[in-house]
Amino acid sequence: MISNPAPLVGPVLTDLDDAAWLATPTPTPVAGNRPAYELRTHLTVSAAEAAGPARLTATAHGIYEAFINGARVGDVELAPGATSYRKTLYVQTWDVAGMLCEGENELRLVVSDGWFRGRCGPSRVPDNYGEVTAVIAALTVGGSPLAGDEAGTPAPRRVVTGPGWEVAVGAITAADLMDGQTTDLPRIGREKWEPAAIADTPLTRDRTRLAASPAPPVRRGEPLPARHISRLPSGRQIVDFGRMLSGWARLSDLGPCGTRLKLTHFEVLDANGDMTTRHLRYAPPFRKEPYPLGQVDTIISRGVAEDVVEPRHTTHGFRYVAIDGADWPLDPGRITAIEVRSDLMQRGGFTCSNRDINRLHANTVRAWRSNSCDLPTDCPQRERWGYTGDFQVFARTAAFLDDVGGFARKWLRSLADEQREDGTIPNAAPDTGTDDSSPLPDLSGAAGWGDAATIVPWEMYRAYGDVEALAEAYPMMRRWVERVERVAASDRHPTRAKKHAEWREHDRYLWDTGFQWGEWTEPGVQWDPRGDFGIVATAYFARSARILADTAGILGKRDDAVRFGELSDRVAAAWRAEFVDATPKSAQSGMRLTQPTQANYVRALAFDLVEPAQREDAAARLAELIRKNGCRLSTGFLSTGLLLPTLADAGYLDLAYQVLLQPKEPGWLVMVERGATSIWEEWDGIDAEGRPHNSQNHYAKGAVSTFLHEYVAGIRPAAPGYTAVEIAPSPGGGLSNCQAILKTAAGLIDIAWTITDGVFRMRGETPQGTPTTLRLPDGGVVETVGGRFSESCPLPEATDISK
User: Fold this and answer.
1) d(CA 192, CA 167)
2) CA distances from 741 to 395, 518, 762 (A)
3) Is pLDDT at 803 greater than 60 in this prediction?
4) pLDDT for residue 681 is more than 50
């Protein structure tokens, strides 16, 4: 529990100038079983000092908590957060006035492995940034309240980490973000203190890394009560919290002294109502055995009725908790789930008349909340890695759901920190590394994943209009595009080189070499790492070059704007030359692609790769493929979120709704019908026989919510940061009403529409003084400058151009 929620304030980095880094003991224990170390000092405080201002500034290699006289400082979790430790380390400062008392006081810091040396990422490799955790802190007593030592204020007294501090292992005898935490309560008060050593490494000597985070901190959400507890014949008790989340379980029903409780966190039940995790056993082709799943917390009771345990040095993705070791019926009122995530302000909301669509949107929100714990992760239980591809496809959706401007900026700084000398973007940021048997270091720089370096900054600019953040990302964006330009011009895919012995004029603009994920998880397609993914990669090459050119123009970099604009045009022309079927048969029947998949047609339209005269044919081919597939999608990871907006923009709105409402696999509403409370990694996350497959909590497919926000509700930015707004609802799918809101810097956007007796009516408001374009379904347009509005029109009939 939080004893004293001291407010977090802007970090005072200079407080740490005279502080020394304290190292935790060596030799380093085995990964996964390393304790959280406690470091302490004592100080005597006068009555005047106790009544005056005080602040605590700290950071760590690992994650840390601070306590003053046994009371926890602040309500921030997992500080200092996920970061690329070699380049950037975030510092926290708390206002701790009122926490000191007259006489002797104790300052205690608790530090565990966290992202610094924990077993993180898909390969569960420890010691990615170092083998020894460390902490640095300064307690400033007196002086000015928060900002430092202004002239005219009494000189402050500063107590800093350094000689004289002690270290011991406390009640947390094992702590790992992935594996879980062991809390041995009988150890409280029995610590064996010894002098703490000063840490002196290249990292601790580099104070230039210290920085203020642009993101809100991680905090605990509202407790989620247990919905049901069942007891199995084995004695195991299964606690169901009713939905997916990321965080931990808080337990106060601990039993007699010496009772050992094992809490295993998991997602789905087997046919017998017991725990199953087989669907999460992750065994990539380069490993003989799956990686261990982890997510196990252990509590050893000391028999004190008032004890409450929250394992704050780990997190888990779960709906259920299996508890072994309790031979009494657990009290549902004494176990709760705590959601732990970045403290993001909710920005948008959506509801409509279709309950299944509402559940789909709610599931998207839950999946996002489960994967936004200081960095955008793929899943909260298996890999928990900041994959570039996942956030790239979801960034626009995230920016509608929450205020993610600072959150994304922090992650983009990690991405820039991890960018390699040649401009390559890694698969994830922070890039925590891989084991010796893994080829993953060589799998970086793939199209759609590396392009997060351009697409995410651009989407944040679109949502918030922050030119400063865009300028900060620009060097990374440019280095990425220049890297792709070099790779494309330096080599060709073996199949292309075999077919054309001599380089053709457009070959140097085809990106078809290096490792590629391709479309990834495309239904019915077996991925082959040796395949030619040039049609995918070259499309992203053109898209990123265009974004870079537009960014350069905004930033006043005219030469770059011209250069990269021309590059994008040449790449798009090369894409058409190579992948648009130029045979006479194709010319007679209309524009066709040489690789005619839904995904490739989506990119052709969404990225403006085809000529204006070819767009109608390309859209018709896309619609044809969808209808031949039973009005079901067959897009993969990269293009699924783009599918419905692309159809709507091309005049196939009714078909977009048919795909959205499709009740058969693959389709979003299958998840809803089969009881999902978040978004699945695969379309058959729970198959028709009820068997689970892969992660049950991935947000990527939830990018469909952008269609709900921008097309069903119709809220779109007509200028970056919604300084001008377009309200253009696109009703369909049998919906009779829709409501949506979006909080912008200028104020609230609110839209509600209904359909009754064939008449479309919409009302709402946009911020005062904001240029607003209202587009009605019958083609009518109304221009306003903010404020409340109310418009209506006859509802047009089905609008698909094919009808």
Assistant:
1) 8
2) 18, 35, 13
3) no
4) yes
Please indicate whether residue 280 or residue 769 has the higher confidence score (pLDDT): 769
Q: What does the pLDDT read at residue 3?
A: 44
C-alpha angle 502-505-511 in degrees, rounded to nearest 5: 90
The structure tokens listed for 671 are 């998840």
* Neighbour-count burial of 627, counting CB atoms closer than 10 A to its CB (0-12 exposed, 13-18 middle, 19+ buried): middle
Of 217-221, 277-281, 311-315, 492-496, the range with the lowest mean pLDDT is: 277-281
pLDDT tier at 802 (50, 70, 90 boundaries)?
Answer: very low
Q: Which domains does the chain have, with CATH numbers?
A: 8-214 (2.60.120.260), 221-342 (2.60.120.260), 404-517+528-576 (1.50.10.10), 727-794 (2.60.420.10)
- Structure tokens given for 413: 């700084």
- Alpha-carbon distance 723 to 715, whole Å? 13
Residue 194 backbone dihedrals phi, psi, to 5 degrees = -145, 160
User: H helices within 79-125, ranges in order?
Assistant: 114-117
Burial of 462 per CB tally in 10 Å (0-12, 13-18, 19+): middle
| Residue % of the chain over a pLDDT of 70 | 95
The pLDDT value recorded for residue 123 is 79
In angstroms, the CA 392 to CA 517 distance is 14
| Partners of residue 402 on adjacent β-strands | 346
Listed in sequence order, the DSSP H helices in 515-662 are 534-554, 558-579, 584-589, 598-606, 615-628, 640-649, 653-660
pLDDT at 281 over 60: yes
**Distance set, CA 422 to CA 253, 429, 481, 673 (Å):** 55, 17, 11, 47
SS3 726: strand
Complete DSSP assignment for 650-701: TT-HHHHHHHHT--SSS-HHHHHHTT-SS--SSTTSB-TTS-B-S-S---GG
pTM value is 0.96
One-letter amino acid for residue 183 of the chain: T
Instruction: Sort 490 into a burial class: Cβ within 10 Å, 0-12 / 13-18 / 19+.
Output: exposed
Long-range pairs, 791-795, Cβ under 8 A, ≥24? 791/761, 791/762, 791/763, 792/759, 792/760, 792/761, 792/762, 793/759, 793/760, 794/758, 794/759, 794/760, 795/731, 795/755, 795/758, 795/759, 795/760
Mean pLDDT of 78-91: 98
Give the HSE-up count for residue 719: Cα atoms under 13 Å, Cβ half-sphere. 10
Higher per-residue pLDDT: 29 or 165: 165
Q: Residues near 268 by Cβ (< 8 Å), separated by ≥ 6?
A: 276, 279, 319, 320, 686, 692, 696
Q: Which of helix, strand or coil describes residue 288?
A: coil
Model confidence at 285: pLDDT above 90: no
Catalytic annotation, residues: 383, 681
Mean pLDDT of 724-749: 98
